[in-house]
Amino acid sequence: MAYIGAIDQGTTSTRFAIVDHTGRFVGMAQKEHSQIMPRPGWVEHDATEIWANTRAVINEALADADVDRGDLSAVGLTNQRETTLVWDAATGDPLAPAIVWQDTRTDALCRQLGGDVGPDRFRAKTGLPLATYFAGPKLRWLLDNVAGLRERAEAGEVRFGTMDSWVMWNLTGEHVTDVTNASRTLLMDLATLDWDEEIIDVFGIPKSVLPRIVPSVGLIGRGKGVLEGVPVAGILGDQQAAMFGQACFNPGDAKNTYGTGCFMLLNTGTQAVQSTKGLLTTVAYQIATGKPRYALEGSVAIAGSGVQWLRDQMRMISDAPEIEALAQSVPDNGDVYFVPAFSGLFAPYWRSDARGVIAGLTRFSEAGHVARAVLESVAYQSRDVLEAMEADSGVEMNELKVDGGMVVNETLMQFQSDILDVDVVRPTIIETTVLGAAYAAGLATGFWRGLDELREHWAEDRRFEAKMTEEKRESMYASWKKAVDKSLNWVE
Q: Are 100 and 260 a contacting pair, CB within 8 Å?
């Protein structure tokens, strides 16, 4: 029997899944990697550790499913976006730690690059504001700050990539990225789907370091070593992969993924809609020989990682799922609001000067109120994004498809529906990111016949309907907005 494999190289872990023709997972393995924070605002990964983990989970998942790599018709790849790495073109050795998408060290550089125009200097071409989130400024920072790197890059001895490029280099020997990941660098023109010469020149980046841009769905290379001979036929950035896994193929389809961060995407079809409300214009996917599909995206930096902070730094819980019971130990939030601006605020604010605050504390406040505030912060940030998305698109949503690890938290899902006043729909398969990567590879190789067949695999598990009164909804949201105001202007 034939299967499709999928690598999901995420922010906190890497996993490999094996999927059958019905879209069911028959094997899975996952391994966490280190989160390195050498200074306030800096977040790094060890790319060598990540590649070792990738090989390990592939072998473990094959063993779990009791299949051989020869049983895999193809493999797809999805990855944390924007995380930036440079490596030696000859040896493949990393030349610096990977700078993670949450890292804020490029704040001053982004202001410098914006010049007199400001954050929107390159938005018309790239769909993105100049912000610490994106890969291009991180690459420029590395070229400026790693001794000898610029000279080596100009001599053609350095390769740059986001984590899809790193995994593909090690897996196939190809130096590539797909259109979805390239659209998150601030270096690609959304219209041409190619690196923009003018922007690259402004950033001071030698073109030789950049990977070749390929469609998301199509044969890209063949595996070596652990996946010797297996076709690699799909690459999607993690949020675009989740959209693909949710079968959001039509204009107007939307999904929200609750992972390390929180990411809402709305399919806008073949039109790249420029946002005026603080959202990002990004590539949703491109099937080889076909036109690209675009999306509007609202990116929230801290969602599940806020729960990790409560567990690892504050030690209020010992395991992430415990937050739901702790939140349920109190009837409401006790007027406590948490703004998780650990890396500034992303959409729709784009304020790198913001920092995290807990507002509304009194002697009455207890751990349960803080836990509830942490969960509710995810829902409030999602409402910020949804309101911006409706204003930009003119589409009023009456339901929102959700996925990711946090959607098993039913307290959060009910509150999300309450604060949005829309139905929140959870599918039977919530691991849609890795499923989307599998779908891309299977579609490219004929394992699945087309998008209609993939749509047939989607099924609803539970629908959460709003129960909150309008008066309470708007009162709580107004308090959230006050708390956001308190988080601003912290960093000079």
A: no
| Residue located via tokens 């109190």 | 330
Q: Report, as an integer, the average pLDDT of 162-187.
A: 97
CA distances from 172 to 2, 41, 81, 137, 234 (A): 21, 34, 20, 27, 13
Q: Give percent helix, percent strand, percent coil of the chain, each to the nearest 5.
A: 35, 25, 40
CA 274, distance to chain mean position in Å, is 20
338-365 pLDDT tens trace: 999 988 888 899 888 899 999 999 999 9
Q: For the purposes of burial, counting CB atoms within 10 Å of the CB of 32, is it exposed (0-12), middle (13-18) or buried (19 or more)?
A: exposed
Dihedral pair phi/psi, residue 265, rounded to 5°: -125, 140
Beta bridge partners of 13: 32
Identify any residues that bridge with 28 across adjacent strands, giving them in sequence order: 17
DSSP symbols for 304-341: HHHHHHHHHTS-S-SSTTHHHHHHHTSSS-TT-EEE--
**Could you tell me which of 16, 226, 15 has the C-alpha nearest to residue 3?**
16
Supply 148's token pair.
């000898």
